[in-house]
Specification:
It is a single chain. The protein is mainly alpha-helical. It has a single domain, classed as Rossmann fold, CATH 3.40.50.1010. Helix content is about 45%, strand content about 5%. It contains two helices and two strands; from the N terminus they run H-H-E-E. Strands 1-2 form a two-stranded parallel sheet. The chain is globular, with a radius of gyration of 11 Å. The protein starts with a helix and ends in a 7-residue tail after the last strand.
């Protein structure tokens, strides 16, 4: 984890609280790391859809 990851974590957590829809803390760390590295996140968990700017790849679904 870097200072950038921690910063992104805080921004994501704040934005989710403002929307009224927090997600599990460990998943915020995962999303923060994906955003920091510019990677796509592959997951079946729909709650990642609430994270702005995150590219979520859902296995078994066609890309839009």
């Amino acid at each position: 984890m870097t200072a950038t990851t921690a910063d992104r974590f805080g921004r994501i957590a704040f934005a989710l609280r403002e929307k009224g829809g927090p997600i599990p803390t460990n998943d915020i760390w995962i999303a923060a790391h994906a955003l920091e590295t510019g990677g796509d996140l592959v997951s079946f968990d729909r709650h990642f859809e609430a994270v702005d700017g995150l590219v979520l790849v859902r296995p078994g679904e066609q890309a839009e």
